[in-house]
Amino acid sequence: MFRENKIVLPKAVSSIRAALSEFFHLKQTKKPPNLATREKAHIEDSWKAPQPRWVKVNCDGSFKPSLGKASLRVVLRNHHGSLIDGHSAVIQTNCALVAEARAVHEGIALAIRNNCQSVGV
Known about the structure:
Structural class: alpha+beta
Oligomer: single chain
Order of helices and strands: EEHEEEHE
Number of strands: 6
Low-confidence stretches: 1-5, 38-45
Distance between the termini: 9 Å
Number of helices: 2
Largest sheet: 4 strands, mixed
Helix content: 25-40%
Strand order of the largest sheet: 5-4-3-6
């Protein structure tokens, strides 16, 4: 998705479209996803380090519907697990998916501001 601090837009747009499609499908059917049959289901038990000279962006968004607010948290870590930078924010929104997407966006922006060349999200 990244090439020399530039986002490869077709790949980013494709990923966002897939997430939105799944979100709206689940919202209509009101059924939880079946992780056993989902192609890209992946559950990590612990943090996994990126390759040497790479930076890993870990991000999360949490949403409180009753307040119409979400909190975002982002950290950048090197292959040793050392903290490079971090960011948190509270935003107004009415959608959990927007909170997650904004967290990813903030993570990418933080990596760019830190001149990271090789980044994994």
